[in-house]
Amino acid sequence: REREREKSSTWSRKKRSKRRKWAHCCSASRGFWGQRQGDGGAQGAETACGSLAPGCPVASPAGSCGGPAWAAASRVGGGRDRKRERKKKLPSFLLLVGMLIPPFRFSTVETGLYRSAYPTEKNYPFLLRLELKTIVCLVNETDVEPLQGFASQHNIQLVCIPVARSMETMTLKHKHVTLLLNVIIDAARQPLLVHCYDGANTTGLALMCLRKLQLYHPTFAQAEFLRFVRDPIVGSEEEKFVEGYRGEVLLPETIPKWLWEGQFRETHPQISLKLSEKHSAEGARRRLDQVKKALSVRLTAPIRVPRQAQQRAMQAEAQAAEKPSSATTLEALNLAGLPSAQRRLPQ
Predict the structure, then answer these.
(1) Per-residue pLDDT tens for 108-124?
(2) What is the C-alpha to C-alpha distance for residues 213 and 62, in angstroms, rounded to an integer?
(3) Annotated active-site residue in 25, 56, 137, 196
(4) DSSP secondary structure code for residue 165 in this structure
């Protein structure tokens, strides 16, 4: 309060000095200040300046005010009003960009995927430039009402995943992340905006799970998370949440190019994937074609035998033809009628 009193006293002192400086040359200033103080300054404001005192804001080069006395009076004492008008005006850089104000903590995650805090009315022109198809709200259902009118007016699908405001404890659950990922990886719903209350913890945790689905290194996901939070360290609770996520993600018919380079995967090393009926049938048909192709290659391919094995087989056949086998000699002895004692086979 003492500082405010000092400021007011200095401001009044400056105004008094200016008033004394201009009072001798401009009766219009007396009229204006008298009108402000309520002592009949309207009569004095009707007169015009007739001198050329240096620093007088009312005096003109011709030696007169150059206009009606009330305009001169407004010029003399309108400093406070001009300051108020300046405060109401927006900065010049906002005028240059055409009044496009992005939401708080707005950023581009991937092509056609954006994140931010809760958007307000002043952010609507900026959101229209993005040509959004879907807005995913990680807030309570009662807090989505301000966005419903904007979304319905511009044919934007509004998806609400009810997540309470996180103050000290983490309110995001694994089931919420699974619902979010099922919407995010659908290329038919993009461009898409994901937001929570502050655009930091809840949205950051959900996008860390998205990076896990994309097979990114955890260090990269944590660095991206720290860009939007105040604390420079990822808490142990957040790390356990991302490491323990094993949700069953349903793959849509079309996926964006930034996910696995646009190619479908049937398995994931850390997250369970669930294929749609179309992709499951295509996968079974693809696997059957691969098996058929492998079998046809095995059946039609000629059997290649090494030359050394062929030579060994030919030598064995020749030796068997030259030397009679033991079975043939036994038959010959039996036919000759020799006694068994005399049946001696050649060694």
Answers:
(1) 999 999 999 999 999 99
(2) 78
(3) 196
(4) -
